[in-house]
């Protein structure tokens, strides 16, 4: 992406699911984050990446969702693919990439998935000003609509995994990657931050 525009395309969505299309100012305090307004995302977000995740990743190329062809241009498609993504339904190829608005929370999620999946897990810092053009959605909106529609009602203890979570479509380019930090080395090893790899 060679331009400097920081606006994202807005999809024609209804209900409470809307694409986010503007950004907050460039400053970002990871020590005391505040909730993002519904039409903005922070200047930095954090991807929790497992080595066997559907989303492909390399520091030199960025992130690429497994599904690059599905167009989510109506609410039912967004709900179907978005909820399948959030509920880890691997039978549906996801066009979405999860990121979080808080570093400490992303690290806790990374530790959780490393323990659950037994995989090396990283937290990757992403500069949202360099995202490819396209919509970004809030996980909270999808989950709220699912509850309102009479879907998942029982508390199953995993709601915290979606706090401050955003869903980016298709890809996150390499120029948006600021650094990556190993957080956990599989289920049988100690949690450890072993330093930043490929820092900008």
From TrEMBL:
It comes from the Eukaryota. Residues 41-182 form the DUF7587 domain. PANTHER family: PTHR40781, PTHR40781:SF1. This is DUF7587 domain-containing protein. InterPro entries: DUF7587 (IPR056009). It comes from Neocucurbitaria cava.
